[in-house]
Specification:
Largest sheet: none
Number of helices: 19
Strand content: under 5%
Keywords: Antiport, Cell membrane, Ion transport, Membrane, Transmembrane, Transmembrane helix, Transport
Number of domains: 2
Function: Multidrug efflux pump.
Radius of gyration: 23 Å
Family: Belongs to the multi antimicrobial extrusion (MATE) (TC 2.A.66.1) family.
Structural class: mainly alpha
Transmembrane segments: 25-46, 66-87, 107-125, 145-162, 174-198, 204-226, 247-270, 298-318, 330-352, 372-396, 408-429, 435-452
InterPro entries: MATE_fam, MATE_MdtK, MdtK-like
Length: 461
């Protein structure tokens, strides 16, 4: 009787995926995800806006830390995704012993990751910067910032993993609250600690790192509190705990591909920075790229929210053999993604200088950055369609195709950056973004056509 009730309780959600009007369903699922991602993107830009007031060298140095920070975030997200998949499945099976093992072993992996990043923060940051041809003031600023962030990486890793535990048991509201609190704390503390307001000593770049750590620490502490007080499905006691290789293997099976994708992106940005640091306008070019990455997330995050909402809808309707709803949601997804990216393109085309001035851009930075923003944003429509096609690959279980499409874009991007840099003309290097966008979209369309012929076309109309 209990099992029958549980099955019936799941039906409303299944019926919604299969019967609710597609537009309302898509927006209803996408908008909360967009908001959560928007809040997360604040971390990418707040530090940079305030650090830019310290000068172009300080801003460029913090921009050079982006690949390392991205790698830390992606490792934490990968572990969290692995926990999420295993814990939610175990919860649905009412296997509470496995639920607890998933949480405990996942937190154990998170602790190991934090220790590795702490070791890097203590001994590896100078090697990291010097490998990008960084020296002088850039090296000093970069080490001040990255060393602190890495030494206290447990705040970032803990925040991400603990928030994933809340998501795993359906408590996304508490996850959103912890994210908002972390972002607000970071925003408030940045000017206080960087410039020495309200009696606090002026710490410059180091103050930005402290504000980031305290913001992440606040979110981590709040997520821990919510887990201990609201997440009754999980027992957080570690008494008698021993790492379980079987559980760790299951977490890694799901999480490692996500980590690899993030690592690939991190290495690509690292490669771009290294190439740009070898050019005549080195620090200014890196500052422009850092400003762009800070702003880019506000355009891309809504599309990633759409992507995350599309995956379960496409997967459900594919399983239900409802080809019409499946294609309808894909068309709507493409239209919304194109609309968002077109708005982003217009923003960068007509307000490039004003966007750069957010980062206290110098005349040289404006001279280099404004044309760069206009060239790079010209690829947005290609990226939009590529992201939506990627959701199809993920929804239908084609993880390899999803990885290959991403690898194609990043590989072509890095290769074209290197080849165009050989001309010695920085303005040409920015064209690597449209080149990679077109190449990746063509490759994604080729992969989609194969999947459509084999899996989608045979479905009944």
């Amino acid at each position: 009787m209990t099992e029958t009730i549980e099955i019936n309780e799941a039906l409303p959600q299944q019926n919604k995926m299969g019967t609710q009007p597609i537009n309302r369903l898509l927006l209803g699922m996408a908008l909360p995800m967009m908001f959560a991602m928007f809040v997360q993107s604040l971390y990418n830009i707040v530090d940079r806006i305030f650090v830019a007031r310290l000068g172009e060298d300080a801003f460029a140095a913090v921009s050079l830390t982006f690949p390392a920070q991205m790698l830390m975030l992606q490792v934490a997200v990968g572990i969290g995704v692995g926990i999420n998949a295993l814990l939610s499945k175990s919860l649905g099976e009412r296997d509470f012993a496995q639920v607890n093992k998933s949480a405990q072993n996942g937190l154990f992996l998170a602790g190991l990751a934090a220790v590795i990043f702490m070791v890097f923060g203590g001994w590896g940051t100078e090697i990291y910067f010097r490998s990008q041809n960084v020296s002088g003031a850039l090296l000093q600023y970069g080490q001040e910032y990255l060393s602190l962030v890495c030494l206290f990486s447990a705040t970032l890793v803990g925040q991400v993993v603990l928030e994933r535990l809340l998501m795993s048991t359906g408590k996304a509201f508490y996850q959103m609250i912890s994210q908002i609190v972390g972002a607000v704390v970071n925003i408030i503390l940045d000017p206080i600690m960087i410039f020495g307001l309200l009696g606090c000593p002026a710490m410059g770049v180091k103050g930005a790192a402290v504000a980031t750590v305290l913001g992440e620490g606040s979110a981590c502490a709040l997520a821990l509190y919510f887990n201990l007080t609201k997440n009754k499905e999980i027992n957080f006691s570690f008494r008698g705990f021993r790492p379980d290789p079987a559980v760790i293997r299951k977490i890694c099976t799901v999480g490692v591909p996500a980590i690899l994708m993030g690592t690939l992106l991190s290495l690509t940005v690292y490669g771009q920075n290294r190439i740009l640091m070898g050019m005549a306008e080195a620090s200014t070019a890196v500052a422009v790229l850092g400003a762009y990455f800070g702003l880019e997330s506000f355009v891309f995050m809504p599309v990633f929210g759409l992507n995350n909402a599309l995956i379960p809808i496409v997967a459900y309707n594919f399983g239900a053999k409802n080809k019409r709803r499946m294609l309808r949601v894909l068309k709507l997804g493409c239209l919304y993604a194109l609309g968002i990216m077109l708005l982003g393109t217009l923003l960068f085309q007509f307000f490039a200088e004003k966007l750069l001035l957010i980062f206290n851009a110098t005349e040289q930075m404006l001279l280099i950055g404004a044309p760069a923003f206009r060239i790079v944003s010209g690829a947005y429509v290609f990226f939009a369609l590529g992201i939506i096609l990627n959701s199809v690959f993920q929804a239908l279980g084609h993880g390899l195709e999803s990885f290959l499409a991403t690898a194609c874009r990043l590989g072509v991007l890095l290769l074209s950056v290197w080849l165009l840099s050989l001309t010695g003309v920085l303005a040409l290097v920015w064209w690597s973004s449209p080149i990679s966008g077109v190449a990746a979209l063509l490759f994604s369309l080729f992969l989609f056509a194969r999947i459509y012929e084999k899996q989608i076309k045979p479905l009944p109309d």
